[in-house]
Specification:
This protein starts with a helix and ends with a helix. The protein folds into 3 domains: 166 residues; 80 residues, no CATH class; 81 residues, no CATH class. By secondary structure, it is α+β, with helices and mostly antiparallel strands. Helices cover 45% and strands 12% of the residues. Helix 1 runs antiparallel to helix 2. It is elongated. The chain is built from 11 helices and 12 strands. The strands form 4 sheets. Strands 1-2-3-4-5 form a 5-stranded antiparallel sheet, with helices on one face. Strands 8-9-10 form a 3-stranded antiparallel sheet.
């Protein structure tokens, strides 16, 4: 049975995208050791990924021959369109033009690729490799926007692959600088309205926003970098040994004082943070330790500063909720919990199912 036109377009599109991803992954790994091939593979990836939406629309859009032939296309016996024609057809046929900045960035790696292919004769200097890093960083920033924003619906099945490559590149200093330059106006505006930024410990950019997840606890802060997206939650505590007031606990880890090196094992963090004052007279009113529905930790939520804090993920909650079937307390309100149960029981429905 011959394939339908739609099936053919989708299959060709998928192959083109996968090839583009393969070339891009290769380019990333070759930059330090084989910069010549990194440049060649990087532009090949750009070229394939820019043409992919055209193929999905119709195979003939990537053919440069005056009289396109479907048979020659299937056999690979055709001339593919140039970079200029690709840009033109994205604009005039798909009505999705590249921005002037993107076009300039892609054309830069195209020219560099041609230079490598025709005139490369020896090794590259440190300065030349640094220029390549910067050039690829600019091109990837624009290509990532093309793939995940302007053509997001088209590349929906491949967003995870692009996200992986974004993570690979965003810790590289050249890419971090390019991304920071694009985000800097927004970061400056954020500072003007009171947002707090510091240097990110991963990418070293002044884009590490500090946010208080609860207005009631000034010592609990969540940090997120706008450039490399590194995230960290930290709770400032006093060291129980040397009393230093600038020590921190991070999620799912032990406490280790940077001054006196006093340690609290991860399994004892709950007791260290717990504010509860239950005694023999009100023992049966105790609702902690409770279960955390945020990180799925069992009995990790303690009383803390008038609310409830998970000692594992450091998420703060104003209220706890009781499962009406098993009586366990947790952080998520569940409707009809007597019937459906909670994370730690099957509820009345599960009991009847077993019967």
């Amino acid at each position: 049975m011959s394939r339908t036109l739609l099936e053919g377009r989708e299959e060709d599109f998928g192959r083109l995208v996968q090839n583009g991803i393969d070339f891009l992954e290769k380019a990333i790994t070759q930059l330090e050791t084989e910069p010549k091939y990194s440049i060649i593979n990087f532009y090949t990836a750009v070229e394939l990924l820019l043409k992919a939406p055209l193929v999905l629309n119709h195979w003939s859009l990537i053919i440069a021959d005056r009289e396109p032939s479907i048979q020659k296309y299937r056999n690979g016996d055709f001339r593919s369109i140039s970079f200029e024609d690709t840009c033109s057809r994205l604009e005039n046929v798909l009505e999705k033009p590249l921005t002037a900045v993107a076009r300039l960035a892609f054309d830069g790696v195209r020219k560099h690729r041609n230079k490598m292919v025709h005139f490369y004769h020896g090794g590259l200097t440190t300065a030349e490799i640094e220029d390549i890093r910067s050039e690829q960083a600019k091109a990837w920033f624009e290509l990532n926007y093309f793939l995940t924003e302007s053509h997001k619906a088209v590349f929906a099945n491949y967003l995870r692959d692009f996200s992986w490559m974004e993570r690979m590149l965003r810790t590289k200093n050249a890419y971090a600088k390019i991304k920071f330059q694009n985000l800097e106006p927004e970061i400056c505006l954020g500072k003007k309205i009171g947002k707090v930024f510091s240097l990110c410990p991963i990418c070293k950019m002044d884009a590490y926003e500090s946010v208080k997840p609860s207005p009631h606890i000034s010592d609990l802060r969540t940090h997120r970098c706008w450039v490399c997206l590194h995230q960290e939650t930290r709770l400032r505590v006093d060291c129980p040994s040397c009393a230093d007031t600038a020590q921190y606990i991070t999620p799912a880890s032990k406490f280790d004082c940077s001054i006196c090196h006093h340690e609290i094992p991860e399994g004892e963090i709950y007791d260290f943070l717990d504010d509860s004052q239950y005694g023999p007279d009100n023992y049966f009113e105790e609702i902690t330790p409770a279960n955390c529905d945020e990180c799925q930790s069992y009995q990790s939520v303690c009383e803390f500063h008038g609310g409830y804090l998970c000692s594992s993920c450091l998420t703060f909650f104003d209220t706890l909720y009781c499962c009406n079937y098993c009586g366990e307390f947790g952080t998520e309100l569940m409707e009809d919990s007597f019937w459906s149960g909670c994370e730690h029981c099957e509820g009345n429905a599960g009991r009847h199912a077993e019967d």
